User: Fold these one by one.
Assistant:
Number 1:
Amino acid sequence: MSNTKKRQCSWVLAVFVAVSSFGCSAYSADTHLIIDGSVSDWPARTLIAEDPVGDAEGAFDVTAVWASISGTTVYLRVDTTKQLNLQSGPAEDGTLQVVLGLPDDERLVVDTRQRKAYLASEPGTRLPWSKLRFTALPTHAAQHYEMRIDLSALGLEPGDEITVDLDGSDRLEEPAKLVLGGHVRIPVDPTPLSRAEGSDLRVASLNTLRRGLVDPNRSPALGRLLKAAKADVVCLQEEYRREGIQEALVSMLGGNWHLVHHDGCVVASRFPLTPLKLDIGRGVAAAIELPEVGPVVVISIHMKCCGYAGSTEDQTRIDEATALAAAVVHLRSGQLGPVYRNAPIVIAGDYNLVGSRRPLRLLEAAGLAEVLPIRTGVGDAVTWRGLKPDESFWPGRLDLMMHGPNVEAVKAVIVDTAVLGDAALEASGLQRADSEASDHLMLVLDLAAVGGGD
C-alpha cells in the first residue's frame, strides 16, 4: 500500500477486525502493550495514520499515529521528527494537542504543553488526569510518545465510535476512526512483593515527600510500605534532616539499621556499611557488606527537578550525572581501594528525568544498566503522580534504578497500593491508601550476584 493510500485510509478498529474501502489489513486488538516510553512492543498493524514531514506549524512535526483499544481505554503512540519534551519547552515550540472525537459531536482535547485535558464544550473546565487514567511516557525528550486515555468516566462504552486527530503544531490530513472494545493484556503479579528466588540483595527506593518518614500523619503508611518490601537496603529521598530517621526505621522495621545521610538522601542497611565520599551531586553513597558476596556500593540520589531539554535545570542534571558517572569510573578503577574494583553498584532514587535523556546515557556509558519496573495490574512505568486533582503534570516516571557490574536484576516492581489486589494487600499487611502518603511510588529491586571480574 502506498503512503498516500495509507493517509487516505479511514481505519475502523473493532474488537477483532478493521475494514476500510482500501482493503487495510486485519487488526487484532488482543495485544500486549506496556506504557513505559519504549515503542518496540507496538505491532505494525496498529498504525492508523501517517502524516507528511515538514507540514507542521510548530515544533511537533508528527509523522505517524498508532492506536490500540482495550474496552474504553485508548492507547496511542505518536511519532515525530525530533526529540522534544511533551510537557514543557520554549514557548516558540507551540503545543501538540490530541483530539478525540466523541459521540454527540463532543471532543476531548489533551493539550500537552498547556498540560490540560478538557471537553471542547467546556474549555474552561480542567479534567483531572486521574479521571481519564491518563499518562504519557517517556517524561524525558523523545521522538516517540505513548499515551493512555480511559473514556469510561465520560460515559463511553465498548461499541462507541470515536475519532483521533491532532491540533496545535500539526494536524492529520483526515481523522482516524476507532471503535471501542477489544482487549489489551496487562501483566498481573498476584504476589508482587514476593522475593525472587536466587536473589542476594533486595533494595527499596522511595521519595518520602518532605520528611514523610517522620511525619506523624504519614509515617504509619510509609512504614507499612517499607515493612512489606522486606528490603535489605532502603534508599530514601527528601528526608532533609537526619534526626529521627534511624529511630523511625527501627520502629517500623525492627532490628538494627545502619545508615548514611546527605543532602536529604539516605542509604539504610540491615548489614554493616561504610560511608563513601564520592562527588555525586545531590546524593549519598555507602558500601554494604553483604554476606557471601562482599561489598555492594549503593547510592541514593535526588537530581535537580524541572525544566526541559536544553534548560538550565537540564544542564544541572547533566552535570550531576557527569559527576556520578566519573565516581563510578573511579570505583571501577580501584581509586577508592581495590575492594571496590569489581563491587556491584546500585544507584536508586529520584532522577527527575524531565529534560533530555543525556543523564542516563552518561551513566550507561559508565557501565550501568537501567532497570524498567512495571506497576503490576496497570501496565505502565509510572512512579510519580500528583496528589491534587488539579495537578497540571500528568503521572510520569521520575524514579529509576540502575545497576552494574557483576550483578543482575531478577525482579523489579513499582508498588502502588491503589491498584494491588485485595489478596496482595492482605498478604503484605498493606492498606489501599498507603501509597498516597507520598507523591512518589516505592520501587523494589531484587538482585543476584553473578561474580566475574574484568
Number 2:
Amino acid sequence: MSEVHGRFEPRFAAVRDAFAQNLPEEVGAACCVYWRGAPVVDVWGGLADRDSGAPWQEDTAGIVFSTTKGLTATLVHRLVEGGVLDLDTPVAALWPEFAAEGKGGILLRDVLTHRAGLAAVDGNLTLEDVLAWQPVCDAIAAQKPNWEPGTAHGYHARSFGWILGECVRRATGKTLGQVFAEEAAAPLGLDFWIGLPDAEQARVATLYGPPEPTDPKLIALREKFMGPETLLGRVLSGPSNLFQYGPMWNEPAVRAAEMPSSNGIGTARALARFYAAVIGEIDGTRLLSSASVDRARAEQASGDDAVIPLPTTFGLGFMLPPTLGVACPEGSFGHPGAGGSLAFADPERELAFGYVMNQMQTGITGDPRSERLVEALYASID
C-alpha cells in the first residue's frame, strides 16, 4: 500500500517523498509534474479499488470533479482565440432561450468569472434529465437568476459547465467533450475524457466519498452553511438535490455523461501534460497563445463569494491564488476539484502539475495532500 511506483528526476525527489508521506491518507493516487516542457515527476501508488485490492496502475484514471473546469475554460479560450467565440458576446446571442427572466445581458465572460448569478439550477429534474444534457440546459435558460447578474461573484459549481458547454455546442455544433477530444486529447495523447467511453470504464478508480463528521458541532456547522435550504447547499447538491459526493459518481451512466464542470475523468499525467501544452509547445501542440494565457489568468473577481462563505479569487474560468491553493504562487492558474484533486500551470516557472486521488477529503480551503506536493515542488526548483 505504501510503495511508490513510477519515476522522477533526482532534483524532484522531495515531490516523490511528499507523495509517499501522503499515501497513508490515500486509498490510491497519482501525481505528475512537467517542467520546461518535459515530465520530471510521474508517480502513483495505493489502490484503485479497496474491496478487491486492485492496485493503482500506471494508466489508472480518476474522476477529478471541478478540476475539469480548467480544461473546459481552456477550450473556451481556444475558441475565442480562433474567432469562434467572443468573451463579450451575450450568451443569449448564441442561445436565444437563455434571455428569459432578465438574463439577456449576461456575457460569456460573466459565466467564466462566476458573475452570471446562476449558481443554483432551479427546476424539477430527474438524474436522467440531467445526464441527458438538454433538459438541464432548458431549465437554466428558463430560470430567474439567483442574484442580479454582474453585481457579485459566486461559485457556479455545476452550472458553469452546462452554460459554457451549451455555448460551445451552439457555436460549433459539437459538444464540449467532443471539442476537447479533438482539440486537446487526440493531438496530445491524453488519457482524459469529458464523457467517458464505455471501453474505458474498467480503468477508472473507485471513488470513496469524504468521511462523515461525527462531532455534533461540525454537523451543526455543516447544516448552517450547507443545508438544503442554503444557497451553497442548493449549488452543491443540485439540481433537485440529486448530487452527493459518494457512490453515485461510480455509476457508469454518470461517468459517461458530459458535465464539463464536474465529471472529467483522467490521469494525473494527462492533467500535467495538458497544462504544459497550455503554456508551451508539447510535441508540436500548443493550446493557447501567451496573450490568451495572460488574459485568462488576470484577476477578474475577488473578495466575498456569494455562494461559498469565504473570499474567492477568479480569472477567466480559472481559480487563482490563494483560492487555487495556499502553496500556489502568484501568477499560477488552474483549478482544484472537490475532495482533493488539483491541476495548474505556472508560466513564469514553466511548471505544470496534476494530482488525482480516489479518497475524498472534506474541506473548502484546500487539501493538505496536494499542499504538501506543491510545497515540495517549489522547494525543488527555488
